[in-house]
Amino acid sequence: MTASLRASIVLAALAAGCDSGERPPAFVIPGPTVPSPLPTAAPYVWDSDEELSIWVNNPVTHGSVALEGDGAAAFIRIDRADREWVLRGPDLTLAVADVRTLRIRYRWRPDPALPGTAARTARVTAYFQTPGPVVSYDPIAQAAAIIELQPVDDWTDVAFIPGQYKPPIEITYCYLHSLGANRGVLDIDRLELVR
Amino acid sequence: MQRLWLTLLAAAGILAASPARAQDPRAPRLEIGATFSGIVPIVIEDGPPIVAGAGPRVAVNVSRRLGLEGLADVLTGLESYGTTALYQTQLKYALRKTRAGRVVSFTVGAAGLAWYDRVHDTRVTRPDRSIAVYPGYRRFRVRPPTTLCAGLAREQIFGRRTSSYLAIQGYVGAVGGVAVRASVGLSFGIGGYR
Known about the structure:
The complex is a heterodimer.
Chain A (H helix, E strand, L loop, with lengths): L2 H14 L1 E3 L6 E3 L15 E2 L2 H8 L8 E4 L6 E4 L6 E4 L7 E4 L1 E10 L11 E8 L13 E7 L2 E8 L1 E2 L6 E3 L1 E6 L5 E11 L1
Antiparallel strand pairs in A: 3-15, 4-5, 5-15, 6-14, 7-13, 8-11, 8-15, 9-10, 9-14, 10-12
Chain B lengths: L1 H15 L13 E12 L9 E11 L4 E11 L6 E15 L4 E18 L2 E4 L5 E4 L2 E6 L4 E12 L3 E12 L3 E14 L4
Antiparallel strand pairs in B: 1-2, 1-11, 2-3, 3-4, 4-5, 5-8, 5-9, 6-7, 9-10, 10-11
């Protein structure tokens, strides 16, 4: 190759402009699995002590989380809501389609010693693991739905509000996460996938 | 873009045919050097007031008066990831040469920008203890030389093989909108200047 030919090739490449190198696709290293030891009485509803126990007793759940009560009266208690906690649901044997969000029955009692100016809510996020992408800008992102729990002494049903995803979606498992906010006690009596 | 290059080549042909005087310093076939530069955007309102750069410069002297130069400046002071570089090819025509080794030249050419990014691996451990892995990668982009540049260069030969280089040029186009670039540097003539 002559020097003039080399120079011509360089000039032609510059004149055209070029790109090299592409962002490789992101991927996920899965976390621990949480097999479900029993089918739920109602499909995709966890209410009894045995069903709620799956959410509490697994290698992923952490924080000050405990199962209280027996039978249908059982509930999950998070008595240090000011610290980070995670409640991991069971792996669903087959991916569940047409899921819109997660609904919980809860009561939230902030610490009475909180200053009057403190926000008395508890912010919790529900994450859904999906077989496919939920948003184009991050194909491995988990679908997230958020709720600001208001203080209530009686059991109250509330559904998480979809965040960056557009329902319905197909999911393989879901979990709840809070980074911790106000001091207080959060009880969860029931969890249900809303379809 | 093609028209700009054709115009420059036509100008090169005319200028190369111009006669040189006997007392002119000899133009070595090849000069290699380095320059430090400052670019001041005049029209663009946002962005830094001045961008500094440094990089290599190569000149091939086609005749005693006409040369073809290529240069690249790695730019600093820009709000961008990775490395941004200015590259430029230009014709250099000697307007005036003195026995003392001073050469004043007119330069005209085209410039463009190139970028190099290196993004490292990112691993995010999620609350469910799964790990999202975003692999690292390298990326190189070159944009076409759509900026016209023209100006004056002053070279002072000292010693047999060395010359200083001082240039001021105006830019119109994608690089800085309307901008002025001043540069200083050193060149080494392969084969010597005298």
